[in-house]
Amino acid sequence: MGQLALAAKITHVPSMYLSEFPGPNFGCREAAINGHKEIDRRCRALGVDTLVVFDVHWQVNSEYHINCGPEFGGTYTSNELPHFIKNMPYAYPGNPALGHLIADVANEMGVKTRAHSDTTLELAYGTLVPMRYMNADQHYKVISISGWCDWHDLRESGRFGLAVRRAIEQRYEGTVAVFASGSLSHHFADNGRAPEFMHKVYDPFLEQVDRRVVQLWEAGEWKTFVGMLPMYAEKCWGEGDMHDTAMLLGLLGWDRYTAPVEIITPYFGSSGTGQINAIFPVTPLPAEA
């Protein structure tokens, strides 16, 4: 059947788009952009046809939701940071069939999920920013999944991630990459101090915890990380409560996953938040998963 070819935790900071334009921030996010381009290169080499994004900028209050419209297009301005992302054009094909397969499997597993293909739902910039650098030529179909889940349990989000894996491997005829699009710590600079933190993390405590987390990832210490994930998400203001990361780990085996990550773009600070591009090697699921 289908194949999960690549999984990654990726940044989507809006300063990536800002850095394209002349001015004081021109070129400042070249490393992050190049990281996306490298992930794209690997996806193409693996024959990936669809990119599934767990997007922490799509907030939902009940159930899990999949935006699997047949196509996406328009001009996007961020209502959060309209001076960073404005008038950004986009156009990508969707994949309704895979979206509904994911919802079917999740519901069968008891994880209430809805796939939206007949919809006017738009994409959020947690999906749009990565797609700009990975999919400008519309090479891939795109599915966006809500990753800002305020009233959900992280373990249930792990179960949802497992459902995504099962749908791909057991029911889909194709090759897929899955991205958790979100930060590590996520405390923005206080109002009026944004320029000061353009390339910094908000507090040394947050940066030190983030760097320790990256060490755990590089060592494949997933049982330790999963154990600390709820407290990490709470105390370090994890973006979207870090449900994107929980989904990604559920996709890979949760606390029984053992592979070390490959860092593509090293950890960096952006507007107070901690960011990274890292590939999580896809390994066989544990037998009891």
UniProtKB/TrEMBL annotation:
- Look up the coiled coil feature and give its residue ranges: none
Q: Does the keyword ATP-binding apply?
A: no
UniProt xrefs under Pfam families: LigB
Which superkingdom does the taxonomy of this entry point to? Bacteria
What positions does the domain Extradiol ring-cleavage dioxygenase class III enzyme subunit B occupy?
7-280
| Stored Gene3D superfamilies | LigB-like
Q: Any idea which UniProt keywords this protein has?
A: Oxidoreductase
Task: Indicate what this protein is called per its UniProt record.
Answer: 3,4-dihydroxyphenylacetate 2,3-dioxygenase
Query: Encoded by which gene?
Result: hpaD
